[in-house]
């Protein structure tokens, strides 16, 4: 089935007389008539539901839809995008391991790698994603377990050369993991370009209505863990907590995701509520329609801003003069996302005046939902930093992040225009 059809029918196909819409199985536990059957589930010898921390039918149906959309063999939902990235990485990289990550990633993921995972004994080297393959190769060490990047980075909007990253990762015997939150599988499927594992913050476009916080980890099934068994003992050696079972041997291609559920979900939790997965599923049903409108609106607004003399600069990979235009044409031929960044001539105060003058467009700490919103990192998320420190963090003091929604673009442009007139 095509992606548009999968958005609607993926994951849940009701049988005769069953509920048309995905049912919310709001239950922690599942009943069995005999002890032996439950014991088999605990030993992973049989598949079935017994406790929602490990698996729940509503969550599984939505995970299956996301896996189908990405063209993967399976997916696991998590309670947030942060949890998805943490689980995806920690599943193969423990204390003593090392990660090579792009510098151009979401601030939360940067902190996770740079602060929290270091405390757990995991090292990270950040690389400029635009560097040559030779430069990128220098970051690898014998204990490197994976390479990480974002298809379209949040907030900078850089486009990742996925094929280049995949070549470098594979030359070092490790998988490439890509956070595909901003592009969504509607606009890019990283597996088609050599990526091995995809992660998502489903909080953004997938939900699309700002109703739930969630995440997903999707496996392509393409990475050969056994060929690099010494690097991945957690997958390729017996697990004591499951009577010496070896994930790759017992579950083949599903080994990575089975370990993620059986070990990490069991021990760390972080499952989504079935109610949230239901809301996420409603969002997914219209993802293909919404992404097209986000991209069309963002393109029109980027072109409008570019022509206005009060605007100092505009960054959107759909603009012909953008540094990432060529990469966007290759990886995101149908459109990228609705997030634009731009700066106004003037200083921090000019940006604040502009934002306060907006009427339809609201100031919120969110991106990628149906309603257009705006954020000024220098006044909000990064307000403790001086102009100099902001520049070091790669954020211009005048940077305004505009997340373009799916309203009529004429109304959005009218609002921007009147706000520009009042600065
Ligand atoms: C928001 C975001 C995250 C974190 O997701 P949460 O759902 O907020 O935990 C991770 N990666 C990217 C690219 C994001 O935009």
From TrEMBL:
GO biological process: cysteine biosynthetic process from serine; L-homocysteine biosynthetic process; transsulfuration
SUPFAM superfamilies, per database record: PLP-dependent transferases (SSF53383)
Pfam families linked: Cys_Met_Meta_PP (PF01053)
Residues modified to N6-(pyridoxal phosphate)lysine: 204
Any coiled-coil regions, as ranges: none
Tagged with keyword Transferase: yes
Cofactor (UniProt): pyridoxal 5'-phosphate
CDD domains named among the record's database cross-references: CGS_like (cd00614)
Family as reported in the entry's similarity comment: Belongs to the trans-sulfuration enzymes family.
Keywords from the UniProt entry: Pyridoxal phosphate, Transferase
Gene Ontology CC: cytoplasm
One Gene Ontology term of the molecular function aspect: O-acetylhomoserine aminocarboxypropyltransferase activity
Domain of life, per lineage: Bacteria
Stated name of the protein: OAH/OAS sulfhydrylase
